[in-house]
Design a protein that fits this description.
alpha/beta, 3-stranded antiparallel sheet, 12 helices, 40% helix, globular
């Protein structure tokens, strides 16, 4: 595996792949790898000739400098993981390589990026995500970029940016990877102590309860939201429990009419966590008969 730190070197490292018409995959990350990241790398390795993993803690998407400072950084461990999983290139640029002096351009996606995470974290969050992802897609020029479905709104926003800007790359979203007890894998989990981690399970329990109710025939949005909310009694703060269209992220009201994303954001101790599930209402046998 080659570790590359400059844009010029990153582009040069892919010249052979480009000249031979090989397929290229990109896995954009902020490091602190866990099994969720590993699943993206394995998929990229299985489906493409050349695999690039970017490792860059993007300051532009953090609304709170304390959160940026506290974000785990495990570069040596990450490099070892990437090499073991067969990654060809680890792109780990310094901040000034991505944002040189005088950098003044941002990319924002209207509407979709303004709700839920955008409303809670502020307009800079998704503008920061889109700007750095657009830069990475431009630098690497992959055929496919792999993302995790745990960040469902991020996936939707980046997909919209790719479509709107005619970027010649496809986004592949893979299912959320969970711990054995249901907690969604996240680099932030390592900041939870034992008691906080137990309380954090309220998020996955909320999703499970809602899924079970929908499986039993419940379609009322407010009853589903209330049932999910009851599982969050032990978290320290709830930012939102929302049922939205999984593509447009517009709120769903009344009864579920099709696949609906249940998205949750809550804080436990010093850590803010997100999780989600797509609820699939049971078909009405009368309507389908």
């Amino acid at each position: 595996m080659r570790t590359v730190r400059s844009i010029a070197e990153m582009r040069a490292s892919l010249r052979r792949a480009r000249s031979e018409g090989l397929s290229v995959a990109l896995v954009p990350t902020m490091g602190a790898f866990h099994a969720g990241h590993h699943s993206l790398m394995r998929a990229a390795r299985a489906n493409h000739d050349e695999v690039v993993v970017s490792l860059f803690v993007n300051p532009a998407q953090f609304d709170d400098p304390r959160d940026l400072d506290a974000y785990p950084r495990t570069v040596d461990h990450d490099a070892a993981d990437a090499a073991e999983l067969g990654v060809d290139v680890l792109f780990a640029p310094p901040v000034e390589e991505i944002y040189p002096p005088g950098f003044a351009t941002t990319i924002s996606v209207g509407g979709l990026a303004a709700v839920l995470e955008g409303a809670t974290r502020g307009p800079r969050h998704f503008a920061g995500v889109c700007t750095v992802v657009a830069k990475l897609l431009n630098i690497v020029q992959p055929d496919v970029a792999y993302f995790g479905q745990k960040d469902a709104q991020q996936v939707a926003v980046v997909e919209r940016m790719i479509r709107d800007l005619n970027i010649p790359a496809r986004l592949e979203a893979l299912p959320t990877v969970r711990e054995s007890d249901g907690l969604a894998m996240s680099s932030r989990n390592r900041r939870l102590d034992a008691g906080e981690r137990e309380r954090a399970l309220g998020l996955s329990r909320a999703l499970t309860v809602a899924e079970q109710l929908v499986g039993a025939g419940e379609t009322d949005v407010e009853r589903l939201r209330a049932a999910a909310q009851t599982q969050l009694a032990n978290v320290d703060a709830v930012d939102y429990v929302a049922l939205v269209d999984p593509t447009s992220f517009t709120p769903v009201s009344g009864a579920l009419g099709g696949p609906t994303l249940l998205a949750i954001a809550a804080s436990v101790g010093p850590v803010r966590l997100i999780d989600n599930v797509v609820l699939q209402p049971v078909p009405d046998p009368v309507a389908t008969g």
